[in-house]
Design brief:
Length: about 350
């Protein structure tokens, strides 16, 4: 074993999907964009199909095309970026459902693929994707006459339950969709936790499936163990790594561990993070380099063959807060060089 070992628990992902599904009385989709938040859209997609998911959401048509090959014909695959120029063949050949975001996209879809499935995204204040009030008022009649599968919008502040933006967006979404008779989708992970007013007909959890905040009750999904390549002794006063950014204050043992920022160990963890030997934390010292990090293992009786970066003592969100980011970025940064193992019963 020369590269890190990334263990992905597919049973935990399925259990998280079922737990989120159990919080609502509506259909529960699954957001598996960005290769299922870095964990492998083909394996995750098949596990969730088996768990019962029938509505999948990805960002781009290319992701949808790959997912269709992995999960077969029995589920809807929604494309959140909509129907972009150049997507038409993929959408048609692989039976993808674009979520149309603008008048331009509506026109493109109705002209290129009349009668083929589509959804609609409305902007309720996030100002990212979707049609705003005026644009929607102008085209709603035409669009609804074509029979969309779904009308959706997205919350900007759902991970802050007390944020006034939540109720503001909910009110606007209700007014924009009143009387349409189309299945509505509003809640991602955070929105599910806000309660039943936010659930409508289909939810779209992503991060919660993968064990991340704000779904505090999630089962952990990821474990990352990194092999030790070399251990050396330093005298007090010696330095470690690029830029001499760390200096030993006592006789020190340093383990060189083979993973770096090219594997998603963010450089902001330099001189901040820790790896674990069982229940003992070992500080990451010196700068994170491309393929290597250096760890102070002086206080260990015995240096194990691998140290744990993500595991029982350090969750994805713990690591994110040390790195100054969010769990989403930690997961989607996980590199392609790890030896991946998928667990399922
Ligand atoms: C990413 C995304 C989701 C999933 O959000 P989570 O916070 O990961 O649950 C749902 N809907 C849209 C439109 C998204 O972009």
């Amino acid at each position: 074993m020369s590269t890190g070992k990334l263990t992905i628990d597919l049973d935990a992902i399925a259990a998280n999907w079922r737990a989120l599904d159990g919080m609502t009385n509506c259909a529960t989709g699954a957001v598996i964009k960005a290769d299922a938040y870095g964990l492998g859209a083909d394996r995750v997609g098949r596990a969730l199909l088996k768990a019962g998911a029938r509505q999948f959401f990805v960002a781009y048509a290319e992701e949808g095309a790959d997912l269709r090959q992995a999960i077969g014909p029995d589920a809807s695959i929604y494309i959140l970026s909509g129907h972009m120029s150049g997507d038409t063949d993929m959408i048609a050949d692989l039976a993808l459902t674009p979520v149309l975001n603008s008048l331009d996209q509506l026109t493109r879809h109705f002209e290129a693929l009349p009668g083929r499935p589509f959804g609609i995204q409305l902007d309720t204040g996030m100002n990212r994707l979707g049609m705003e009030w005026d644009e929607w008022s102008a085209v709603a009649g035409i669009a609804l006459a074509q029979g969309p599968d779904l009308v959706m919008s997205h919350l900007a502040c759902a991970d802050e339950p007390d944020h006034p933006m939540n109720a503001y967006q909910l009110d606007l979404f209700r007014r924009m969709t009143e009387g349409t008779g189309v299945p509505l989708s509003f809640a991602a992970t955070g929105g599910i936790l806000l309660g039943k007013d936010y659930h409508f007909e289909i939810t779209r959890p992503g991060i919660g499936l993968y064990g991340g905040q704000p779904f505090a009750a999630a089962r952990p999904v990821v474990r990352l163990d990194l092999p030790v390549a070399q251990v050396r002794h330093l005298e007090a006063g010696e330095v470690v790594g690029y830029g001499n950014s760390w200096q030993a204050r006592r006789p020190t043992r340093i383990a060189s561990v083979v993973a770096g920022y090219a594997d998603g160990l963010l450089r902001s963890l330099s001189n901040k993070g820790a790896l674990w030997a069982g229940n003992t934390p070992c500080p990451l010292v010196g700068r994170v380099s491309m393929d290597t990090i250096t760890v102070d293992v002086t206080d260990l009786e015995e240096v194990p063959s691998a140290l744990t970066m993500i595991g029982p003592n350090q969750s994805v969100d713990d690591l994110a807060s040390v790195a100054g980011t969010i769990g989403y970025e930690i997961l989607t940064s996980l590199g392609s060089r790890y030896n991946r193992r998928y667990h399922s019963a």
